[in-house]
Specification:
alpha/beta, Rossmann fold, eight-stranded mixed β-sheet, 12 helices, globular
C-alpha cells in the first residue's frame, strides 16, 4: 500500500480522556488493537502495521497526550504515569470495548507495561517493542554503568528549556537525525517520513509536552515493585538499539509468566519501521498462538 493509499483509507478522529482531547487514526473492524508510539514520534510510526492488521482488527494508533494533534496540557504533572494509564483505559472504554490487544514501542511500551499491571483484565495480549520490563530497566539504571551512560538524556531532559532549544535548532534537525542517522537500515525513512515527525514536534507546545514525560516520571523508572505479569506478552527487540542495551531483556521471563521474545538483527530502536515485515510476522504468530 502506497503512502497515498494509506492516508486515503485512514479515519482521523478525536476522543476525550480525563478532559484531554486525544487524536487517533483508525482502520478496520473487529477486536481492538491499540497502538502507542514512543519519543519523538506520533501515530505515523505505525504506518506499516495499521493496514497489515486492519483486515482482522479495529486498529487504533493514538497520538499520546502532548504529541502531534493531541491536546498538550501545560502542567508537567499531566504527563505522570497514572494520567497516561487513564488515557489508555478511557480510549478502550470510549471506543466501546472491554479489552484490547495493546501494542507499544519506546515510551508507548513503558505505558503498555504499566497499563498491563494496572488493568490486566482489559488486555487480551500485550506486545512491546524495544522497551524492557520496567523492573529490568530500573535494575540497569542502578547497576549497569553502560546503560547509565546510554540513558544520559534522561538527566538532560530535566533541565528547563535547554532540551527544547536543542531539539528545535536548525529546523528540528535533531528530530530527523534521531531516525535517519541512528537507523541501521538507512532506507527505512524517506524525507517525507522525517518531515512528518519534524512537523509533529513543531506544533505549539509539543516539544515541552514530549519532554515532560521524562520530567514527570523519573521516579516511575525505579520506585515500583513488580509482580509476575499474567498477560500473554510478546517482546520484540532490535539488537542495534542505540539507547537501550539488549542485555536489558535478559531475565524478563522472571516477571512475565507467558513470554515470547524475539531479537531482530541488523535493526535499531525503530524496529517496526525498519523491519516491518518481520515485525508483522512475529505479531501474527503471537496473536494466533493460544487461540486454538
Amino acid at each position: 500500500m502506497s503512502d497515498t493509499e494509506l492516508h486515503q483509507n485512514l479515519e482521523h478522529r478525536f476522543i476525550v480522556s480525563n478532559g484531554v482531547k486525544l487524536h487517533y487514526v483508525t482502520q478496520g473492524k473487529g477486536p481492538l488493537m491499540l497502538m502507542l508510539h514512543g519519543f519523538p514520534e506520533c501515530w505515523y510510526s505505525w504506518r506499516h502495521q495499521i493496514p497489515a492488521f486492519a483486515q482482522e482488527y479495529k486498529v487504533v494508533a493514538l497520538d499520546l497526550r502532548g504529541y502531534n494533534e493531541s491536546e498538550k496540557p501545560a502542567d508537567v504533572n499531566a504527563y505522570r504515569m497514572p494520567e497516561l494509564i487513564k488515557d489508555v483505559r478511557d480510549v478502550i472504554e470510549g471506543l466501546g470495548y472491554d479489552d484490547c490487544i495493546l501494542v507499544g514501542h519506546d515510551w508507548g511500551g513503558f505505558i503498555a507495561w504499566c497499563f498491563a499491571y494496572a488493568h490486566p483484565e482489559m488486555l487480551q495480549k500485550l506486545i512491546v517493542m524495544n522497551l524492557p520490563h520496567p523492573a529490568k530497566f530500573a535494575e540497569a539504571l542502578r547497576n549497569n554503568p553502560r546503560q547509565m551512560l546510554r540513558s544520559w538524556y534522561i538527566s538532560f531532559f530535566q533541565v528547563p528549556m535547554l532540551p527544547e532549544l536543542m531539539l528545535r535548532a536548525n529546523d528540528y534537525d535533531a528530530i530527523a537525525s534521531a531516525f535517519a542517522d541512528r537507523a541501521t537500515n538507512k532506507n527505512a525513512f524517506t524525507p517525507e517520513d522525517l518531515a512528518v515527525f519534524k512537523d509533529a514536534a513543531a506544533r505549539r507546545g509539543a516539544l515541552t509536552a514530549m519532554i515532560n514525560y521524562y520530567r514527570s516520571n523519573t521516579r516511575t523508572f525505579t520506585s515500583q515493585d513488580w509482580d509476575v505479569l499474567e498477560v500473554p506478552t510478546l517482546l520484540l527487540w532490535g539488537e542495534d538499539d542505540f539507547a537501550l542495551g539488549k542485555e536489558l531483556t535478559y531475565g524478563t521471563e522472571a516477571y512475565v509468566r507467558d513470554l515470547q521474545l524475539h531479537y531482530l538483527s541488523h535493526c535499531s530502536h525503530w524496529i517496526q519501521q525498519e523491519q516491518p515485515d518481520l515485525v508483522n510476522q512475529y505479531m501474527r504468530g503471537f496473536l494466533i498462538s493460544g487461540n486454538g
